[in-house]
Amino acid sequence: MSNPVLVDQIIPATDVIPLTARVGAEIRGVRLGGNLSDAAIAAINALLLKHKVVFFRGQEHLDDSEHELFARRLGDLVPHPTQGPVAGTASVLNLDS
After folding, report:
1. Residue 81 falls within a domain, yes or no?
2. Which residue among 1, 7, 9, 83 is least crowded, i.e. fewest CB within 10 A of its CB?
3. pLDDT (tens digit, 9 = 90+) per residue, 78-88?
């Protein structure tokens, strides 16, 4: 689903805010979870490929396992080579900012 018209039908261009000229975008108006359609996942994946990094704010409803389930829909997860995952997950890491 790399066709911008098809992506725009699922996630309107007005809900994709580029953060820099070359890398990064915030995607608004999407509630992440297991009930996202395959078309929505394909649109998110296309935007990820285009912008390299995407951000979804306000997703506090996701616990670690739900976050991991969403990530798996985008592709295979690769565990960190030296850090162990959060208990009960295969690939989720705790990040401390």
Report:
1. no
2. 83
3. 989 999 999 99
Range of the domain at 28: 4-61
- Please state, for a pLDDT cut of 70, what percent of the chain lies above it: 94
C-alpha 40/C-alpha 9 separation (Å) is 10
Assign 3-class secondary structure to the chain.
CCCHHHHHHHCCHHHEEECCCCCCEEECCCCCCCCCCHHHHHHHHHHHHHHCCEECCCCCCCCHHHHHHHHHHHCCCCCCCCCCCCCCCCCCCCCCC
Residue 36 domain flag: yes
Kindly state whether residue 16 falls inside one of the protein's structural domains: yes
Number of domains into which the chain is organized: 1
